[in-house]
Amino acid sequence: MVEELISSDGTTPRRVADAYVQALAQLDPLTAVYLGLNPEDDRLPDLSPAGAEAAAELARHTLAVLEEVERAGVAEDEAERRCARLLRERLTAELAVHAAGEGFRAIRNLGSPVHNVRDIFTLMATETEQQWEVVGRRLARVPVALAQFRETLAEGIERGLLSGPRQVTTMVEQLGEWLGGEAPGGWFGGFVGKAPESLRAGLVERAGAATAAVADLRDWMRDVYGPAAADAPDTAGRERYGRWVRYWTGADLDLDEAYAWAWQEFHDLLAQMRAEAEKVRPGADPMEAMKWLEADGPAIAGAEPAREFLQGLMDQAISDLQGTHFDLAEPVTRVESMIAPPGSAAAPYYTAPSLDFTRPGRTWLPTLGRESFPVWDLVSTWYHEGVPGHHLQLAQWNYVADRLSTYQVSIGGVSANLEGWALYAERLMDELGYLTDPGHRLGYLNAQMMRALRVIVDIGMHVGLDFPADSPYRPGEPVLPDSAREFFGLYCGLSAEFLDSELVRYLGMPGQAIGYKLGERAWLRGRAAARAAHEARGEVFDLKAWHMAALSQGSLGLDDLVAELAAL
Fold it and tell me: Per-residue b/e over 149-187, b at no fewer than 16 CB within 10 Å?
């Protein structure tokens, strides 16, 4: 695909970027499913070392094509230059991670290659027999994909590139959950239980083979990989961490400045939480108030009523914000609340709509075996995951894909931009008066505190920093995983199970967790600069127009985000 474009007349960076998306969708079926492309494709990603190298070679070739196109001088307008800059930065960051061998130790509690294999099935269409036939053919390939992943991990052992013990233990536990469940045949058996009766027998057989492959991988990770990784470090170190920070944020950040800034945020948020806790329970400190809300505050009984509550929350937000703070096209207004499959990480998450909107955007609530769902922290979380958070940004990107490039609105996304917008969305709802209930607002402040704590513990653990002199917890002592977990638990009012999962997540995805708060900082700085520029010109700052322009510019890394937002 890329080779064809390089020799055609009028080739531009945006055409190169879209050619890359099409080529990657052919190479990686997960990309195709995520975007809603190639619906008849029944393959799974090649999780072997050869598969990773093929993707890297495509990236290298695309960069070479881009360089030739730019030398030809066809990228004269700003839209083309912006796309070229993003494509170059993203592919370069991805290749740096690949060259460091990170794929050989890709064990983590969410977003690993194994999680992606299962997630493909949750994103596939299953309305017709023909669609179920595609599911069945893809299901038959699960044992091969898991064997390829095992091959990659085995080579990682040989190279001395291993995940830390906490990642291994957690994934072994998660795979065990996939094997259990209410339906025979584990998660895959339950998934095919809703298939047409005419296809059920064959699908059940293939689900059984997939489940057996999960069991084999679980046992190998427990008995072979686990002992090999027993002495592997859980943390990354400054050099490896810096490489991942560039990957997740699109910037080479000053980590020491970010660490110091996060401590300022910590102290400010703690003061606000103390004031709000007094409104929830007079005389209570924040942790006491949040424990009361969790145990005795308003709650929803049952997973399905909780799902319905969250759907109503998003529907109401769309109804209220449409025409006042956003101007949304009809496809963007559709979003579904879902229950996450068992064996997921503890954090809620969002999946974007397909490019053609035939699959809507979806929020996912992990139940973790619970039957009661306190609402104090759900409200702000669903403003983050759904509306006006991830859903409005990613659905709007899809809606304007024809004005930009498919790459800029999909796989070129930068985590810190996405998570920064979603955290900004929570703050926006607070600014608009949607979090006046003391419990809901304490939940919002706790979510902000969690993101500030993420910057502190993530940078602190991986880079090897100390708790500062003004820390209320162990000043002057190093930030180690166990002390980071204790510190987190003292100042974040979420469950122990959630915080345990979070710590494993941070250790397994170095640099990703800092993008929320630092991304929000970039969005707020960009908005403030845009407002100041309008007022300096004697103009009224139109927040709705700014929101829509900001959500219609596609992906940007933090290197570029503030300047681009300020110019709107």
Answer: bbebbbebbeeebbbbbbbbbbbbebbeebbebeeebbb
C-alpha to C-alpha distance for 341 and 364, rounded to whole angstroms: 9
CA 405 to chain centre: 21
The strand pairing partners of 365, in sequence order, are 339
Q: How confident is the model at residue 7 (pLDDT cuts 50, 70, 90)?
A: very low
Q: State which amino acid sits at residue 517.
A: K
Residues 426 and 383: beta-carbon distance below 8 Å:
yes
CA contacts within 13 A on the Cβ side of 31: 19
Q: How far is CA 218 from CA 7, 142, 144, 146, 244, in A?
A: 48, 14, 15, 10, 27
Give the tens place of pLDDT for each residue, 222-243. 999 999 999 999 999 999 999 9
Termini Cα distance of the chain: 35
Alpha-carbon distance 568 to 112, whole Å? Answer: 37
Rounded-to-integer distance, Cα 280 and Cα 435, Å? 13
Q: Are 459 and 512 in contact, with CB atoms under 8 Å apart?
A: no
Long-range contacts formed by 288-293: CB under 8 A, 24+ apart: 289/442, 289/493, 290/376, 290/442, 290/446, 290/493, 291/493, 293/374, 293/376, 293/377, 293/439, 293/442, 293/443, 293/493
* C-alpha span between 504 and 167 (Å, rounded): 6
* CB count in 10 Å sphere of residue 297: 19
- Give start and end residues of each alpha helix (H) in 250-366: 255-280, 286-296, 303-321
Please check the confidence at residue 9 and state whether its pLDDT lies above 60: no
Distances in Å between the Cα of 103 and the Cα atoms of 50, 53, 377, 503 are 11, 10, 35, 21
Task: Say what percent of the chain tops pLDDT 90.
Answer: 92
CA distance 217 to 114: 10
**Distance, CA of 541 to CA of 246 (rounded, Å):** 33
SS3 at position 48: coil
Burial 92-131 (b: 16+ CB within 10 A, else e): ebbbebbeeebbbbbbbbbbbbbbbbbbbbbbbbbeeeeb
Q: Are 250 and 414 in contact (CB under 8 A)?
A: yes
φ, ψ for residue 513, nearest 5 deg: -70, -20
CA distance 32 to 35: 5
pLDDT digits (tens, 9 = 90+) for 65-117: 999 988 887 556 888 999 999 999 999 999 999 999 999 999 999 999 999 99
Write a three-state SS string for 181-199.
Answer: CCCCCHHHHHHHHHCCHHH
| Stated pTM of the model | 0.94
What is the distance between the alpha carbons of residues 21 and 2, in angstroms, rounded to a whole number? 10
**Cα–Cα distance between 298 and 20 in angstroms, integer?**
49
Encoded tokens for 96: 């740096």
Q: How far apart are CA 336 and CA 68, in angstroms?
A: 43
CA 92 to CA 56: how far, in whole Å?
A: 10
| Whole-number CA gyration radius for the chain | 23
